[in-house]
Hints:
The structure holds four protein chains of four kinds.
Chain A: E1 2-6, H1 9-12, H2 17-29, E2 32-36, H3 53-69, E3 74-76, H4 80-95, H5 97-107, E4 117-119, H6 121-127, H7 129-135, E5 144-147, H8 157-160, H9 171-178, E6 182-183, H10 197-200, H11 202-218, E7 223-226, H12 229-237, H13 239-244, E8 254-256, H14 257-264, H15 282-295
Parallel strand pairs in A: 1-2, 1-3, 3-4, 5-6, 5-7, 7-8
Helix pairs in contact in A: 2-14, 3-4, 3-5, 4-5, 6-9
Chain B: H1 2-13, E1 19-26, E2 29-35, E3 44-45, E4 71-75, H2 77-88, E5 97-102, E6 139-141, H3 153-162, H4 166-177, H5 185-189, H6 214-227, H7 237-241, H8 248-263
Parallel strand pairs in B: 1-4, 4-5, 5-6
Antiparallel strand pairs in B: 1-2, 1-3
Helix pairs in contact in B: 3-8
Chain C: E1 4-9, H1 21-29, E2 34-40, H2 46-59, E3 63-68, H3 71-84, E4 92-96, H4 98-102, H5 108-128, E5 135-138, E6 142-146, H6 150-161, E7 165-169, E8 184-185, E9 190-191, H7 192-205, E10 209-212, E11 215-223, E12 226-233, H8 248-252, E13 258-259, E14 268-269, E15 272-273, E16 285-286, H9 292-298, H10 307-311, E17 324-330, E18 332-335, E19 339-341, E20 367-369, H11 370-377, E21 398-405, H12 421-435, E22 440-445, H13 455-464, E23 469-472, E24 475-481, E25 484-491, E26 496-502, E27 504-509, E28 511-513, H14 517-524, E29 551-553, H15 563-580, E30 585-588, E31 593-595, H16 605-609, E32 615-621, E33 627-634, H17 644-648, E34 654-656, H18 661-670
Parallel strand pairs in C: 1-2, 1-3, 3-4, 6-7, 6-18, 7-10, 18-29, 20-27, 21-22, 21-27, 22-23
Antiparallel strand pairs in C: 5-30, 8-9, 11-12, 12-17, 13-14, 15-16, 19-28, 24-25, 25-26, 31-34, 32-33
Helix pairs in contact in C: 1-5, 2-3, 5-18, 6-7, 6-15, 11-12, 12-13
Amino acid sequence: MARIGYFPGCSLHGTSREYDESLRALLAAMETSVEEIDDWSCCGASSAHQGGRLLGVALPARNLARAEAQGLAEVLAPCAACYSRLAASRHEMDRDPDLAAKVRLVLAREDFRNGVQVKNLLQVLRDRLTDLKAAVRVPLKDLKVACYYGCLLVRPPEVTGGFDDPEAPSSMEEICRALGATPVAWNRRLDCCGASLSLARSPSVIRLGSTILQDARKAGAEVVVTACPMCHSNLDFRQQAMRHRGALEGEMPVLFLSELAGLALGLPPKVLGLHRHFVPTGSVTSRFAAAAGEVG
Amino acid sequence: MRELRDLARRLLEEGSVQTVLGWEEGPRGARPVFVRRPEEAERLIFDPRCVHNLAAYLSPRRPHLKGLGRIAICVKPCDAKAVAGLIRETQVARDQVVLIGLRCGGVLPDPEGRETLSGETVADRCRGCPDREPRLADHVVGTAAEGFPGPSRRQQKVEELLALSPDDRWRFWQQELARCVRCHACRQVCPLCFCEQCIADKTRPRWVESSAHGRGNLAWHISRAMHLAGRCVDCGECERVCPGGIPLGLLTRRVAKTVGERFGWRPSDDPAVPSPVGTWRPEDPQEFIL
Amino acid sequence: MARIGVFVCHCGENIGRTVDCARVAEALRDLPGVVHSVDYKYMCSDPGQQMVKQAIAEKGLTGVVVAACSPHMHEKTFRRAASGAGLNPFLCEMANIREHCSWIHEDREMATAKAIDIARTLVEKVKRNRPLKTIQIPVTRRALVIGGGIAGIQAALDIADGGREVVLVEKEPSIGGHMSQLSETFPTLDCSQCILTPRMVEVYQHPRIRLYAYSEVESVQGYIGNFRVTIRRKARSVDEDKCNGCGACTQACPNRKVPSEFECGLGKRPAIYVPFPQAVPNLPTIDRSRCLLFLNRAKGRPDTCKKCAEACSKGAIDFDQQDRLVTEEVGAIVVATGYQVYSIGKETGRDDLHGYGEYGYGTLPDVIDGLQFERLASASGPTAGRILRPSDGKEPKRVVFLQCIGSRDPAKGMEYCSKICCMYVAKHTMLYKHKVHDGQATVFYMDIRAAGKGYDEFTRRAIEEEGARYIRGRVSRIWRDGEVLKVQGFDTLSGRPILMDADLVVLATAVRPQPGIEALAQKLNVSYDRHGFINEAHPKLRPVETSTAGVFVAGACQAPRDIPDSVAMASATASKVLGLFASEMLEREPTVAVVNDALCAGCFHCERVCPYGAVEHREVRNRAGQVVRVVAYVNPGVCQGCGTCQATCPSKSVELQGFTDDQVYQQIQALGL
Amino acid sequence: MDGEGARPFEPRITAFVCNWCTYTGADLAGTSRLQMAANVRIIRLPCTGRIDPMFIVKAFERGADGVIVSGCHPADCHYNAGNYHARRRFAIFRELVDFLGIDPGRLTFSWVSASEGAKWRDVVNETVDRVRRLGPFTAYRELVTDPPVTRVIGEEVPA
């Protein structure tokens, strides 16, 4: 059984429990054991690096150092922001040996080699595309999906290592096609969802989010897929407010990529946490979960 | 042995060659022999005492072969690489010689050797040698044999020396090279030292002092090792014939290590494989250059 | 016995301030072999040179050392002076005690000691110098021009008009290059075809120009004055002697759906085609990758379609024609292979040239490049000169032009300015305005670089008179919304984000050298930069020469160039070539390697390391005429004098004249304790 | 040589440089008046390809404490490829003489282009400083004065 390090971050233990649940179920079905970093701490989110470069690098590095000590070669950070912070920290230390030395000092980890690969869900699934394809039980036939990347999953290329084109990515589409779904061509794949302004400037978030969802619908999508708790929350939770302001009509289910993959692998919707969404996911689950029930 | 003698006789009888260059039983063990008549083919032997690299006789700078007609030469895998080197460097034309390849499971350090071949007694250079039969050959004879595993002791010695400080290495080599009397046997026996006039014999200018003092000796051995870079086939003849017992193989091994690690070159019995001297890649490592 | 004269120069205060020149002269006077040693204020002045000449004559000097500035400064001066006094110029050497000593040290003691050392090494060297004669090599007075664009055409015509024969090689079926694709040219807006076509015809009809179109340079041997070039004449599948250019074959071809290269994919052509009506030579070519007959043959099927052959009244179609190799002897080569436009991240096979996924080029049909716009605007183009957008053939009312696509962006692999885009974008806005009077052209630019005669006036006219809207800033994204393109960018002058609708977007893509330029450069032994642009020998003083003597460079294969620049460069190469051809013999510095036949063992390491292929095999025969040995021979015409052979030769049987082992050895000895 | 008394040790450095890049770069250092250590003596050769390892050996024999070899950057060689051959040659040479006990700190290899006058100054100063720290290369100079033959044979040759 393959083994992968796991950095859930705060969202997956809170607002995005379903992301955590679906991921664990998905990876278990793909015979990959998930090993959570022992005593992990905050990635620093959007605030630590505002407080100073060393803090912004050292805070995520603490988690990388722990992962390294645990003997983990790669760590999955499902949250796009966590991923970005961890990967950026790794990149900064790689590029600047003096900084790396300082980080070792403040962490009191002289032996830290900065040798852990940081990956997001796109990378992890694309690495295992053949396995994923082979594990599909319920191909998501005729399901039109809008793959939504948001800001940090494929950018900046220096930090992501350029695993996908930062301006014209294709990895999520590739994964969705492997699941049997049909990705639509649309315009707002890389737009900002409003991210951390969710609370501070919710009107902005509503405007940005509704533009994204409308564009997805215009392109014929039946569901929007994301791999970021922040994007998910802004697009799922805010739909009622969007409708309220007349910025959106009807509902557009927003699924985590792990949920979508879980459905294709025949995992029951409940196991995947699909009942936890604000926007009902029934339009999708009803089409594919019947068959899933038989398998699951 | 039968196979070898029959082949040699046939080649001489049918006239495809006029001389077979091989080994015979001498008063002090195996020694080179030039067989010119079919009935003399019975003199030929091949066993672990046949250590000499006969390719040295092929060099046009050596008069031994003048008037001997077309030649067949017995080669072990390492000897074949030397012949390949001579072909590569246009000293010998491939169609001028017939190569009788001998399957080889290693040789003794010495033609006089009385020991049976074993992991203990085998010549150090044969330890870890991957080649059991020459690919550059017109005929291959002999019985298949297993080789002996590496690494060789001198490979280990090279690593040991590399772990020392430069000063300690300097002392080691000064003690070793102090025994050099500049007899140049290492040069004479080397199949790939075929210059008309060796740089060590040049007087204008004199890059290598002829006196057997530390300075001249160091210059000579640096020069020899440099000239063999990417050419040495590791036949071990230089070290075998050195009357001072200087471990010359350590120098050629050190150079071979550089050439192997940096340029990916190993001695080859394919004359078409270009030598690393005379070729380059834009991406050759240059970490030592400011 | 050597009789050496030493002349120490003060260079006014330049040397004298830190080096005690008198002491240097005095110290050198005591060296064995030195018979004359003096110092003087300005050795390079007339009286200084006279001192040298006089000493040579009066003291019978056999060698001269001038301790002064760098040999790069005045070696020629003093060698000429020595020669004037009857001494072989190569017996004169410079000791550099200015750049390498007085100017970089302050301590007078140390600088003086160093100056003495420097001069001493040269005294010891010059004792071993031998008189050398400049080398004379014959010149084949014909030129090869590679590339039949405007630069190649101009170079060929100028050389041919100068009375010398020219071989012009063009890889495409017709000459004309990119200029033939352009609609009008800046800053005069004259029709490109109208000024180019007469020149193309002139080339075709010129008695001293031999044109090989649809041909490529296969290999190049030899050296300045004596190149031997093998040219591959690719099979057109049409017999050019029989064809009368009637065009019946192209009409008959059933496969009419091949995207036309000339029209940048905006138009179609048949599988047998003439790239454009004014093509020179006016000969059709079968594109074997598209012709049904050849596609069938590749699959082992019988020939079915022979419609072109049936239509030809001359029997000129030859399906079995093979590539032919021809050899030409020339004395000089002009490289004028031109450019290609950056592929905007598509089809390059190179990681460092990716990017611009956000502009949707290749997926959004109404996002095109500048060359495609030229075809839209061209009267002979696929739309007969009407500006119609590719997706639906409608006339765009809002066209957005983006400058610097790839250029000036290290992240896209091209940090250089492509030079021509500012001008052609301004031209495009005008052409657009002239054709679509109610249309609005908008340009996103980083800077407007309009240096050139009439250029700034031209861009100003585009803005002030023709109503083009210029926005300083970049575009971050383009997407389609129904029939319109949404262009999102930033106006850096007003500091505001911009979102605008467009019907057509034109990308001003970077200029890159032609594909395969590296392979050609290697054949020619000329150096190129990391983008593939051919390097000139000196950026200021030798702009059209290359690192290899006898090979010249013109046009956009050297750097992004517009038409006037390319033509000027081409004429410059022609003048260089004609200058080279002015005499039958060529003089070369004698710094070449010479083999000692008696000692050469014939291992040919020298041949392997020689960067110029100057080493040949030479047979040494005995009196009976039998070959006894094969030794190396260095062709003095090819040898450039690097000396790599000598350092590689194990027995030092090849010597570089002027830098022999003995000379270097004596220099090292002179520095000894 | 060793009896220099209180005078500080001044390393003697011989530099073998190519005519087109490093020599010209050193010229530029001069025209730019870049001050540098005065310990280096330049021998001008057309190309690094011309520089024979024996030049370096001879320089040490003649009392040099350090040697600089410098030429054109890769792809910049005036002769297209001389520097590439030199790079292979000196990669081998450097590791060989290091193996023989010559401290590689006494050898500097560098690419200095015609426009890198400041880099040439840095190469010179760095080399002089480094060799100054290593001290005079007396071991090489004593190779002849110290007759080791009889003494060592007695100790070393095994029975």
